[in-house]
Amino acid sequence: AFPSFTPSIDLETPRFRTVMTQTEVTATCVVHSAYDAKVSWLLDGKDPTSRTPVNQASSTTQSISSNLTLPSSQWKTLNTITCRAEHRCFNSTEKTSNVKG
Q: Start and end of every Ig-like domain (predicted)?
């Protein structure tokens, strides 16, 4: 059996000024895990629509980076954004950020 290992998650959200001056904003989630976890996003607790572009790349064997890009107009309506990491070798782990201005 694999040792129980819960990944740590860093969630970076765009600055207020960026949201107010750019037409699109990007949130970045970095999952630090020895496993190739699946990273997913929740907007206000719901799965974003399939039209929302999500890029996931394994930058190293120890971390996975995922970017979520949204129109600023949609970002301004959000209350929370959540990044979730899932893998069969550990319980799903998530980090939520309150983004309401």
A: 7-100
